[in-house]
């Protein structure tokens, strides 16, 4: 659809901005490290290399996921965004490991810091820029249902907080004159980088394995409860799978057994329209209708996450 194509182009354009900014910030951080020879700034610089690589992976994943579905990929190409996020998390984790090895290897060497005030100012600029572009990426990622943009934004925001921590450590080094604290700060934030990488990988694997999204399910169930119709007796066997921006939803709905096929289909279409109204038109909804006994009307019992996920009607 034209609207989907426009959103896909917007996602790609935003990811291009993220990648270009990553290159610029890497240059600034590299200059700061070259000027100060600070191991803490070195950790920040190395992670910026990861940002660049991740930016290009994210750009490719957005381009690939925007391709229309075909015979070999009937659900589209959106799963590539989870793979891209997993690769990004892998690079982040690897960078953290390399940072720790580098710092440990340099512990016995003389540690002389130069022009630390200039280095602090430079990486402070990169922290502000990273947070701004990360917030921008997350905002549009949530609006456009793009995991790749959200992952990039979260990564940049994590990078921001680690940079702020490094700045605090460098200020302490500058005030106390204890150069060895620089290596300690680098070790701490190398560990933080590993942690953030593992979190990204875990979330990506959950998406690849179609793990349930409890928050999304709660939102859908709560919304349907607000607009529930008398003929909607029961909803069960609800399943939601994400394919990039597309939500594939399966469910069984129990309706009175004396409804005609046409009337039952109308009830099904009303439910589908409600869900698309709330969660956008990128929803594939497949509802299997189950008949209840003749004359049975809908009860006042609310549908909950627990009972709609069951593989059987919770009233029958």
Q: How many β-strand stretches?
A: 3
Please work out how many helical segments DSSP would assign.
9
Percentage of β-strand residues: 5-15%
Note the overall shape. Answer: elongated
Q: Widest sheet: strand order? A: 1-2-3
For this structure, what is the CATH homologous superfamily of the largest domain?
Cation efflux protein transmembrane domain
Give the tags:
316 residues; mainly alpha; Alpha-lytic protease prodomain-like; Alpha-Beta Plaits; 2 domains; 3 strands
Brief summary:
This protein is mostly helical and 316 residues long.
Question: How would you portray this structure in words?
Answer:
With 316 residues, this protein is mainly alpha-helical. The protein folds into two domains: 2-208, Alpha-lytic protease prodomain-like (Up-down Bundle), CATH 1.20.1510.10; 214-309, 2-Layer Sandwich (Alpha-Beta Plaits). Helix 8 (261-279) links the parallel strand 2 and strand 3. Helix 2 (39-65) packs antiparallel against helix 3 and helix 2 (39-65) runs parallel beside helix 6 (180-208). The radius of gyration is 25 Å and the shape is elongated. The longest helix is centred in the N-terminal third of the chain and has 35 residues, at 2-36. It is 67% helix and 10% strand. The protein has helices at residues 2-36, 39-65, 80-106, 116-143, 147-176, 180-208, 214-226, 261-279, 305-309, and strands at residues 234-243, 246-256, 283-292. It has a three-stranded mixed beta sheet with strand order 1-2-3. It starts with a helix and ends in a 7-residue tail after the last helix. It has nine helices and three strands.
């Amino acid at each position: 659809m034209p609207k989907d194509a426009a959103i896909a182009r917007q996602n790609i354009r935003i990811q291009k901005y993220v990648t270009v900014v990553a290159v610029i910030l890497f240059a600034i951080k590299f200059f700061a490290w070259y000027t100060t020879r600070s191991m803490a700034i070195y950790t920040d610089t190395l992670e910026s290399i990861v940002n660049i690589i991740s930016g290009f992976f994210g750009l490719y994943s957005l381009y690939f996921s925007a391709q229309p579905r075909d015979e070999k990929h009937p659900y589209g190409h959106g799963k590539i965004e989870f793979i891209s996020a997993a690769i990004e998390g892998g690079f982040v984790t690897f960078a953290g490991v390399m940072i720790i090895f580098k710092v440990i290897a340099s512990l016995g060497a003389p540690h002389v810091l130069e022009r630390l005030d200039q280095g602090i100012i430079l990486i402070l600029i990169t922290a502000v820029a990273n947070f701004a572009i990360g917030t921008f990426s997350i905002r549009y990622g949530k609006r456009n249902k793009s995991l790749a943009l959200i992952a990039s934004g979260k990564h940049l925001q994590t990078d921001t907080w680690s940079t702020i921590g490094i700045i605090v450590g460098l200020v302490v080094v500058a005030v106390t004159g204890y150069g060895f604290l620089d290596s300690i700060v680098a070790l701490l934030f190398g560990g933080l980088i590993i942690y953030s990488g593992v979190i990204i990988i875990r979330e990506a694997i959950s998406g690849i394995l179609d793990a349930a999204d409890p928050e999304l399910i709660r939102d859908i169930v709560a919304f349907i409860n607000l607009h529930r119709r008398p003929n909607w007796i029961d909803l069960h066997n609800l399943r939601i799978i994400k394919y990039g921006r597309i939500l594939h939803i399966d469910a069984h709905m129990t309706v009175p057994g004396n409804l005609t096929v046409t009337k039952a289909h109308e009830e099904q279409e009303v439910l589908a329209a409600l869900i698309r109204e709330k969660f956008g038109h990128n929803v594939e909804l497949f509802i299997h209708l189950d008949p209840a006994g003749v004359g049975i009307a809908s009860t006042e019992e609310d549908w909950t996450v627990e009972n709609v996920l069951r593989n059987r009607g919770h009233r029958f």
